[in-house]
Design goal:
Strand order of the largest sheet: 4-3-15-14-13-10
Helix content: 25-40%
Shape: globular
Radius of gyration: 20 Å
Strand content: 15-25%
CATH topology: Beta-lactamase
Structural class: alpha+beta
CATH class: Alpha Beta
Largest sheet: 6 strands, antiparallel
Number of helices: 11
Order of helices and strands: HEEHEEEHHHHHHEEHEEHEEEEEEH
Number of strands: 15
Number of domains: 1
CATH superfamily: DD-peptidase/beta-lactamase superfamily
Distance between the termini: 52 Å
Length: about 350
């Protein structure tokens, strides 16, 4: 059996086996959270939101044309739109790619609130020295917060590997923004500080507490998460509610606020592994160029995003009380995170509610 076929079967075994069930409400009364177990999830009739049915059809046709596998819009936690394409189903898992960086950021916050780590401390306090080939004095400048904000100062031109040989000094930590898989060292920090494996700590502190399914798998230079689309939507709902699930604060509200705000001044469109819309300028992966304006001009300025290769998306829009999920293959050309698809997609999302 080919490796990818075997991986698919393993991932499929971790997904729910039954079809998803829904309970429909005409209009939202309060913020809703689906039960931790089972398949019930309240829905909204888009007509109750005064959404344009023709625009809904146009949006879904566009998504199918652009190689999507699934799409969900939550409003106040309830499902307003849920659609699967191209043989994908509600129980089929799919990889998050770099959208899963935000899972690592969130669990780092949980570890800090349990007073197991301090993100202001240097990485080597937790995993020892020699995890890079930078001079010791330079390696010791790199804090957990630098990994969260992509400001480690390590050389991103040597590839996305995370072995010491690849992690070489380029600039002092905090003086240069560069998108790199070195963030995954935070998982080593969490494991070392908690005395548990990364996956065990993740499952008990985050996944199981909000009813997600899914597993991590190792791609060598990165650790990638795979789950159903509804599990991704559960995580988006948690973050949209500032880290609180029903009456339980899973991760500190102040931490989520900080994580979804500019983390440094070099790239104001980046928080703690979250992308931020509506800023004055932005940098993109693989470049040191600064671009003026907002990342996704057609989207609301208060939107923040988890973005992954080949257009895996979590959009969170506080002003619209919306969480939007898109999973699939690349809409156009393969990409690292942001693509032109984001802006084109948002043109069609806006047409739902704009007259």
């Amino acid at each position: 059996m080919k490796p990818f076929a075997l991986l698919f079967l393993i991932l499929l075994s971790f997904s729910c086996s039954s079809s998803e069930e829904t309970i429909t409400q005409e209009s939202p009364k309060t913020l809703y959270f689906p039960p931790l177990t089972g398949n019930d999830w309240e829905t909204l009739n888009p007509a109750s939101l005064n959404w344009n049915q023709t625009a809904i059809d146009t949006l879904l046709n566009y998504l199918e044309l652009k190689h999507s596998k699934s799409f969900i819009i939550l409003v106040d936690g309830r499902i307003a739109i849920e659609k699967y394409f191209n043989g994908h189903t509600a129980t089929t898992p799919h990889y998050w790619a770099s959208a899963g960086k935000t899972l690592t950021a969130t669990v780092t916050g949980i570890t800090e609130q349990e007073v197991l780590i301090n993100t202001n401390n240097k990485v080597s306090d937790y995993i020892g020295t020699g995890w890079t080939t930078a001079p010791l004095a330079k390696e010791n400048l790199i804090t957990c917060k630098n990994l969260l904000s992509m400001t480690s100062g390590l050389d991103d031109s040597l590839g996305d590997g995370t072995s010491p040989a690849v992690l070489q000094y380029k600039a002092d930590a905090g003086t240069r923004w560069a998108y790199h898989n070195v963030y995954v060292k935070l998982q080593d920090v969490v494991a070392a500080a908690s005395g548990q494996s990364w996956e065990t700590y993740f499952n008990t502190r985050l996944r199981d507490r909000i009813g997600m399914t899914g597993i991590w798998f190792d791609l060598g230079d990165n650790s990638v998460y795979s789950s159903t689309t509804r599990s991704m939507a559960r995580f988006g709902l948690l973050i949209a509610n500032k880290g609180k699930w029903n009456d339980t604060q899973i991760v500190n509200e102040n931490y989520i606020t900080t994580a979804t705000s500019p983390s440094q001044s070099i790239n104001p469109a980046y928080g703690y592994l979250w992308w931020l819309n509506g800023q004055s300028s932005y940098h993109l992966p693989q470049t040191q160029l600064q671009f003026p304006g907002s990342l996704v001009p057609n989207a609301p300025n208060d939107m923040f995003m988890a973005l992954g290769k080949n257009d895996q998306k979590i959009y969170i829009v506080p002003s619209k009380k919306m969480v939007i999920i898109r999973m699939g293959d690349a809409a156009d050309a393969a990409n690292f995170a942001l693509s032109n698809f984001d802006n084109e997609l948002w043109k069609r999302i806006r047409s739902l509610y704009e007259k």
